[in-house]
Amino acid sequence: MIDWKIKDNLYNPDNVAWHGNKFLTGNGYMGVRGTLEEYTKEQLVAVNLAGMYDKVGDGWREPVNAPNGFYGYLVVDDEIVKLQDNAEGVDCEEHYIELDYRHGVFTRCTTFRVFRGNITLKSSRFVSMDNVHAGAIKTEICADFHADVKYVFGIDADVWDINGPHFDIIKVNNDGLLTVDAVTHEKNYNVSVAEEVKSDFPCEIKDEEELNKALKSVSFITDVNKVYEIERFFAVYTSLDCDRPIEKAKEDTARIAEAGFDKLLDKHKEAWEKLWKYSEVIIEGDDKSMEALNYSLYHLHSIAPRHADNLSIAARGLSGQTYKGAVFWDTEMFILDFFLMTEPEVAKKLIKYRIDTLEGAKKKAAEYGYDGAFYAWESQEGGVDACSDYNVTDVFTKRPMRTYFKDKQIHISSAIAYAIGKYTHMTGDDSLLTEGGAETIIECAKFYYSALIKKVNSDRYELRDVIGPDEYHERVDNNGYTNRMAKNTFRLAIEVLENEKYTSHSCKSGEQIDWLNNENVREQLLTQFKDAFDKIYIPKPDSDGIIPQFDGYESLEDVTVEEVRSRLLDPKEYWGGAYGVASHTKVIKQADVVTWLAMYPHDFEMKIVEDNWNYYEKRTEHGSSLSACMYALVACKCGMTEEAFPLFTKSATADLAPGGKEWAGLVYIGGTHPASAGGAYMVAVEGFAGVDFKDGKINVNPRLPKNWTKMTFHISYRKTMYRVEIEDNNVTVKDVDDVNSMIA
Ligand code: IFM
Questions:
Q1: Measured between alpha carbons, how far is 275 from 546 in angstroms, rounded to an integer?
Q2: Which residue, of 27, 181, 339, 552, has the fewest CB within 10 Å?
Q3: How far is the CA of 618 from the centre of ligand 1 (A)?
């Protein structure tokens, strides 16, 4: 059995950025990087806020980091004692950091060797899952001599930014409660933090001054080996939450301080236990896999925007500002299944974000000359596309390179339609359709319809000049994944249009829309979509059974990934685009045809699926964390558990193991990998356990890895929660009240 803790016993400045992600705590409203209290922006400290974006100058828009209420450091006998590579003369006797990922509690414990003896600083902290605005930290200080201690603490508003600074105004106050009221540059949002301290031993509390920090200190002389506890509480509110966030932050802080650390911690843990009740996956016989998988799920829980109706999950979660805090197809295609199967109400919220941003998608479609809804490749609030036309900098010329992710990754809209269809099918709840989902599907279908191309002498429709999931090959024709997903969008749109219930329902905006109210328009759309569904070109396997990823793929240079890597003139060179080393070869960045096969394994006979897996896996760089899980999932479907297992492990340990890409030149590009975490869940449940749903039934066809002696988990299907147990290939599926048994 696992202990639900990860620990690091070494202080190594080189790991600070990676550990910031690995030891992250969060509650969907904010994410706090796993950094130490004495750290500042140089060590990439961040209290990253969900759904608030800001732009300064020519930099790209990015999410806002709130002032850090966990800031604090020790002064012993008038010497500052911090664990930082630039802190001179500080000696560290022992040090560890630990994350309890069952409950999102981060602990650090450091024993410093100072002039007169040893002093230990231990602190445990969390951002509450019970009240998402609240954070609390308990610090214990103990010295083996009569130390003259000053503990300086408060709110650090000098926050880390990639493209900032985002705060034009920072009002700092330390009268009574500590407060910071900061105002963002672009939209004048207020970000307000208040903080309170509690200690129950004789001490002196004084104000402290440092630029852009609201600080106080607690001073005392220690008894030998006596432990002194200091509790701190803070609350964060912004003008997206309420009208007077600073007042709300103060009220909340006073209230939570009154309750005290232990009570808050109990409530926080209770909230986490509720989440685990149906989401924990128990794997007997392989603790490493159980740890990696549940640690991945911990990350998904920590970033789920349960508190809001109109937020989704960013590609790097709440671990900072990389990828602009934007929402990609990652959410619908990789993350959604976990929530669908464990907390469908969260899945619904994630999709509602897309329904709410439909107007942004329609605007983007119109800008590119299409009808319907072309969703943002990198979506921020309102569906604004944060993706730039020049997303990569050329390492040789240092010039921005024209990339086409924003204009050509048209498969994004199909992911939204797919997610709405999947939610409706899995839950049996069609409320999303009547709350704007039907309209969204139709608009996505209209988009693809307007993008179809037909040669004069041909009867088939094509999608030309696109980018598929494999981003190294830009502007290709008839990417199989894209065409197949567009076909599915037409199918969903036909189903919606043929159902009276959805066509007689008013659309989300309440406006009269033609396909709802005008029979002729509805009929015309139906005819168009049926025609498109029938005639859209879906690439077929060639004589060797291989499905070409796009037109002409077969004639590209057939070399190994290693050969392509050896051609790099600079290790940071971009592999794709016009001159990329992979562009003229068959080497691909990430699962593409295989992502199609993962979504639609029954499109072909199993032999074809297996042959394509074998063909493409060799040619895949796995340069995206979205790749390994799709290969693992398809391997499972082909009965290739052994091949799947290392790829599953790679996905499940994306944030646990070292080695992820963290820097592009001087720009930090690291962060957590929620899509990989969601993908690992898909592999475990849909792959190894072999769960799928058909005709109102749950089917379970396990092919567990060899050490997994038993696997137990829950899945929600059609409004009922089921417990699934797999042992020695015997399967039981029972609803949680143990009333009905599902025949598996
Ligand atoms: O959405 C992905 C894309 O498929 C590959 N590059 C990173 C994006 C965000 O995770």
A1: 43
A2: 552
A3: 20
In the chain, the N- to C-terminal Cα span, in Å, equals 27
Is 359 a known active-site residue?
A: no
The pair of three-digit structure tokens given for residue 305, joined into one six-digit string: 């925007």
| Domains of the chain from N-terminus onward | 5-277 (2.70.98.40), 343-539 (1.50.10.10)
330 touches ligand 1 (CB under 6 Å): yes
Query: Do residues 359 and 382 make contact, with C-beta atoms less than 8 angstroms apart?
Result: yes
Each residue's pLDDT tens digit, 159-186:
999 999 999 999 999 988 999 999 999 9
CA distance 56 to 185: 7
Q: Calculate how far, in angstroms, residue 560's C-alpha sits from the geometric centre of ligand 1.
A: 23
- Closest C-alpha to ligand 1, atom 10: 315
Ligand 1 pocket member 675 (CB < 6 A):
yes
Ligand 1, pocket-test mutation among 299, 303, 330, 408, most atoms within 8 A of CB: 330
User: Which of the 8 DSSP states describes residue 684?
Assistant: I
10 Å CB burial of residue 659 (0-12, 13-18, 19+) is exposed
Check residue 672 and report its DSSP letter. -
What residue owns the CA closest to ligand 1's atom 7? 624
Q: What's the CA-to-centroid distance between 331 and ligand 1, angstroms? A: 10
Residue 145 burial (10 A CB sphere; 0-12, 13-18, 19+): middle
What percent of the chain clears pLDDT 70, i.e. is strictly above it? Answer: 96
For residue 658, is the peptide bond before it cis, meaning its omega torsion is within 30 degrees of 0?
A: no
Q: Which DSSP letter does residue 327 get?
A: B
CA of 661 to the centre of ligand 1 (A): 13
- The span from the CA of 71 to the CA of 160, in Å, is 13
pLDDT for 744 = 41
The reported pLDDT for the residue numbered 85 is: 64
Q: Tell me, using a 6 A CB cutoff, whether residue 410 lines ligand 1.
A: no
Is 434 within 8 Å of 496 (Cβ atoms)? Answer: no
Distance 328 CA to ligand 1 centre (A): 7
Q: Is residue 66 very low, low, confident or very high in pLDDT (cuts 50, 70, 90)?
A: very high
**Is residue 735 predicted with pLDDT exceeding 80?**
yes
pLDDT tens for 487-513 read 999 999 999 999 978 876 545 555 556
Ligand 1 near 329 CB (within 6 A): yes
Q: For residue 275, which of 135, 136, 129 has the smallest C-alpha distance?
A: 129
pTM of the model: 0.96
Please enumerate in sequence order all residues whose Cβ is within 8 A of that of 162, keeping only pairs 6 or more positions apart, or say none.
59, 62, 320, 321, 322, 667, 668
**pLDDT tens digits along 89-143:** 578 889 999 999 999 999 999 999 999 999 999 999 999 999 999 999 999 999 9
